[in-house]
Amino acid sequence: MPQKIIQINREMFDHKNKERFAVKAPEGITEDVVRMISKKKNEPDWMLQKRLRGLQLFNDMPLPTWGPDLSKLDFSKISYYAQADEKAEANSWDDVPEDIKKTFEKLGIPEAERKSLSGVGAQYDSEIVYHNLKKEWEEKGVIFENMDIAVQKYPELVKKYFMTSCVPVGDHKFAALHAAVWSGGTFIYVPKNVQVTVPLQAYFRMNAAGLGQFEHTLIIVDKDAEVHYIEGCSAPHYSKNNLHAGCVEIYVHKGARARYSSVENWSKNTYNLNTKRAVVDKNATMEWVNGNLGSGVTMLYPCAILRGEYARADFIGIAFAGKDQNQDTGSKVIHLAPNTSSTIKSKSISKDGGITTYRGLLKIIKGAKNIKATVQCDALLLDKESKTNTIPYMEIKEHTVDVAHEATVGKISEDDIFYLMSRGLTEEDARKMIVSGFIEPITKQLPGEYAIELNRLIELEMENSIG
């Protein structure tokens, strides 16, 4: 029986506006570009010095010698800063420039804010164009701010946490690059004992060709507080390479809980080289929910550092790779304290010669006793040309631990197809049902509109595929 071809409909995401820039940096990364970005944002000297240190380390550090091939990524052909409009950030959609507003309307952001969110931020290329927090959370002391503005309004708090112990400037080459040219992003602070019961969301849109986007997300969840933050990302398709090297830092203090959900749907010309990490204190919980698809090359490994006793981390994610795509994703958990626990569930789908790789790290240091950790990797291949790899790395320095690893690779069974068709389904609907069941553990963890989007992108767009 011939295999079906799953087509992903990117019409909503490939919409693009005519490029118009109030400010755009020349291609290439130089000290002049770094200083220009810092000056444009009127930053304090300590942030400029952090940027310059990042530039120095970026120039000194080699590209990774493992993972996907990055040889076609030409840093001299990327513009590292672009501002589409000189207008100040808006807190009403009516004040956002019309063409930019229409882009976010196509993506459903204003509607989602009205229906189900506590606050929304929207970034277009290098700058936040819209930001709003509902008054009830503002009155409880919650800070939900554009990262650029947070540097000005909360300098001591930002200085304490920004690229210090969570993601140091010199952590790796792309962290250093990010430190040098970061722009925009989200700053969240949740005070002690405050539970933000409705999610906060930011959406990052890269419109211009040959652009880099480097948003910084810094989330601080104070003692016994709780927050759910949702991030969406997309870009239209161009023949010229784009680069995304954002950074997410999350501090989950004693007894707190944080959930970070994201669906990254960059176009195939985008290199997605993102860094996401959380530091988790005593009795605290960090939850990662990730969907990765769209980009030509992805290297992304959300990490949780469990530094407090009874801390917990859960990761669940899916990667989808089609033709000309290499999705190298996974998760890292580092157990530094006793009685900590973690679960990692990773799924991938490969088609049309796409490559998916689970690359993970589970580390338990000496003295971290009574650890419970499980890693589960499931891969689904939709044809004979596609590939999947599982590269788990476990470094265990203690004996009193309970660690389990399981990995499976499978194809859509023709017997299953036959059985479902015997129950009245078409072959197309049978395949949709199987794929939908495979990704259900991820979609049921996502908010409604993101679950619908992920389903639509991965398995509901099976048009004209009989043959």
Short account of what is shown:
By secondary structure, the protein is an alpha/beta fold. It is built from twelve helices and 26 strands.
β-strand percent reads: 35-45%
**Class by alpha and beta content:** alpha/beta
The general outline is: globular
Largest sheet: 14 strands, mixed
Tally of strands: 26
Instruction: Quickly count the domains.
Output: 2
The residue-averaged pLDDT reads: 82
Residue share in helix: 10-25%
Number of separate helices = 12
Descriptive report:
There is one protein chain. With about 475 residues, the protein is α/β, with parallel strands linked by helices. The protein folds into 2 domains: about 10-260 and about 270-300, no CATH class; about 320-410, no CATH class. It contains 12 helices and 26 strands. Strands 5, 6, 8, 9, 11, 12, 14, 15, 17, 18, 20, 21, 23 and 25 form a 14-stranded mixed beta sheet that branches. A 10-stranded mixed beta sheet has the order 4-3-7-10-13-16-19-22-24-26. It has a two-stranded antiparallel sheet with strand order 1-2. The longest helix has 17 residues, at about 425-445. The chain is globular and about 70 Å long.
